């Protein structure tokens, strides 16, 4: 039997953290050794050691940290991974320019993967947007994203990544955000020309897709050489 990949889940009590803990136990080859959240006021999963963020340094040895938290919680967990030589997978959105630079710096020491969206569908949508933007010079490009009312950042990290893909291929995207109900995540990328329009849409109906993608990335990243990996590198 091969040794399991030891995981630290950061942001464990959140919507994504809870999905990650539940699904990690179903996936062979992964073992959660630490669940970290702001305060240990609720234990998410029995049998998993829980830590408050103030106790992060006391976490046991781990191979990969998976972080789905908030920008204000991000720096210490990245620093811990760099210090210990552990891999880092993060889906936290709304990061500052300095935090993006910290990722770049850390990638010289550890393997890491940050993605605004861990679903397979959005990875494909990204490719479709690149193709459409390159093939439709001069068309208007509009990105409309919809999420639940408790989402803090806008436009979403995914909308900005899709916009960057369009921009790299000559389009000038505009953004609109909708915050309503319990929408898990929807992204519409619309290309409009004279007398015609293309609409590319992705709808997430369950956040397990993001958690599964992040667990898959963690399993694939453990033991790789240092570097900044993209989701398509580990699919
Ligand atoms: P949430 O608010 O439900 O959970 C946030 C978690 O962060 C909680 O466990 C909380 O305890 C922890 N936290 C907050 N402040 C902290 C601090 N100062 N120190 C330590 N921990 C702290 O949020 P969520 O819906 O689970 O989303 C988390 C992040 O993941 C958001 O940035 C969201 O945009 C992003 N997200 C990304 C993807 C993707 O595929 N990349 C998918 C869904 C959500």
UniProtKB/TrEMBL annotation:
NADP(+) binds at residue 38. Pathway: Amino-acid biosynthesis; L-lysine biosynthesis via DAP pathway; (S)-tetrahydrodipicolinate from L-aspartate: step 4/4. PROSITE patterns: DAPB (PS01298). It is an enzyme of class 1 (oxidoreductase). One of its GO terms (molecular function) is 4-hydroxy-tetrahydrodipicolinate reductase. Belongs to the DapB family. This is 4-hydroxy-tetrahydrodipicolinate reductase. It comes from Luteimonas marina. The lineage of its organism: Bacteria, Pseudomonadati, Pseudomonadota, Gammaproteobacteria, Lysobacterales. The gene is dapB.
């Amino acid at each position: 039997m091969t040794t399991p990949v030891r995981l630290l889940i950061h942001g464990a009590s959140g919507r994504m953290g809870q999905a990650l803990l539940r699904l990690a136990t179903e996936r062979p080859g992964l073992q959660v050794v630490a669940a970290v959240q702001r305060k240990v006021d609720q234990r998410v999963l029995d049998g998993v050691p829980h830590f408050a963020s103030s106790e992060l340094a006391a976490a046991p040895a781990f191979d990969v940290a998976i972080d789905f938290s908030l920008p204000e919680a991000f720096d210490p967990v990245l620093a811990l991974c760099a210090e210990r030589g552990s891999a880092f997978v993060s889906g936290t959105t709304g990061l500052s320019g300095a935090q993006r630079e910290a990722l770049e710096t850390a990638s010289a020491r550890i393997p890491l993967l940050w993605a605004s969206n861990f679903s397979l569908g959005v990875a494909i949508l990204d490719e479709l947007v690149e193709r459409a933007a390159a093939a439709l010079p001069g068309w208007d490009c509009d990105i409309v994203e919809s999420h639940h009312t408790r989402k803090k950042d806008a436009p979403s990290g995914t909308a900005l990544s899709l916009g960057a893909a369009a921009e790299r291929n000559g389009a000038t995207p505009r953004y609109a955000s909708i915050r309503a109900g319990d929408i898990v995540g929807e992204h519409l990328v619309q290309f409009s020309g004279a007398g015609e329009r293309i609409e590319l849409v992705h709808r997430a109906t369950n956040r397990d897709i993001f958690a599964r993608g992040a667990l898959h990335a963690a399993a694939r990243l453990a033991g790789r050489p240092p570097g900044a990996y993209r989701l398509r590198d580990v699919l």
